[in-house]
Automatic annotation (TrEMBL):
Pathways involved: tRNA modification; N(7)-methylguanine-tRNA biosynthesis
The organism of origin for this protein: Paucibacter sediminis
Lineage: Bacteria, Pseudomonadati, Pseudomonadota, Betaproteobacteria, Burkholderiales
Enzyme superclass (EC): transferase
Molecular function terms, GO-annotated: tRNA (guanine(46)-N7)-methyltransferase activity
Protein name: tRNA (guanine-N(7)-)-methyltransferase
Keywords, comma-separated and alphabetical: Methyltransferase, S-adenosyl-L-methionine, Transferase, tRNA processing
Record-listed E.C. numbers: 2.1.1.33
UniProt superkingdom: Bacteria
Segments of this protein annotated with the region Interaction with RNA: 151-156
Stored InterPro entries: SAM-dependent_MTases_sf, tRNA_(Gua-N-7)_MeTrfase_Trmb, tRNA_methyltr_TrmB_bact
Gene: trmB
Amino acid sequence: MTDPAESPAEPTDAPERRRIKSFVTRPGRMGTGQVKALAELGPRFVLPYTPGQRLDPVALFGREAPLVLEIGFGMGAATAQIAQSLPDHDFLGCEVHEPGVGALLKLIGEQQIANIRIFQHDAVEVLEQMIAPASLAGVHIFFPDPWHKKRHNKRRLIQQPFVAKLVQHIRPGGYLHCATDWEPYAQQMLEVLAAEPLLENTASAADGYAEKPAYRPLTKFEHRGIQLGHGVWDLVFRKR
């Protein structure tokens, strides 16, 4: 059910001991609306990657508000819906897939969404170079590439080194919300997140998985999978 275009992943040809990355580059066609949105709205909503220059969210959005980072927003439909349902939050989306960036910009323009900004760059480098420690109210990672084959499991994004890096940028009381439609990956996510000493599970269910938060909409691929009897697992952990 997972749509590759909506999934952050890692390079298929990287060496075993490679630097963590949040994506794999995939080709994609740009529609005329996406091209137009990139040209007209990109200068306002797509942020330049400037290593070593910390982002100033108050200056960027013109207000002080909880800041949420989404890693790998795909075609941006869920991102746009969440931003509209949480107007008192500001959102940073990281996505290297250009058609997805264009699609989200198109939605921003059509729906007049003011509380989203975009990085068309690797989320790991954005975190390291531009996001201040303990500055994020939340992080969303929805349906990352599950790398189904066992020999490729090491390429999954949710691994201990990445999570340890990520939580340094979440403020105390902030949250990390992951979702997947691949049960073995859900099990790995649960194991990795539960082992991180700075995180605590918010789920009340005995199996450790959370109810889908109201702010996360169903994607078309998720809805299709549910109709086919596939499962979806949400994990919501809070930083201590």
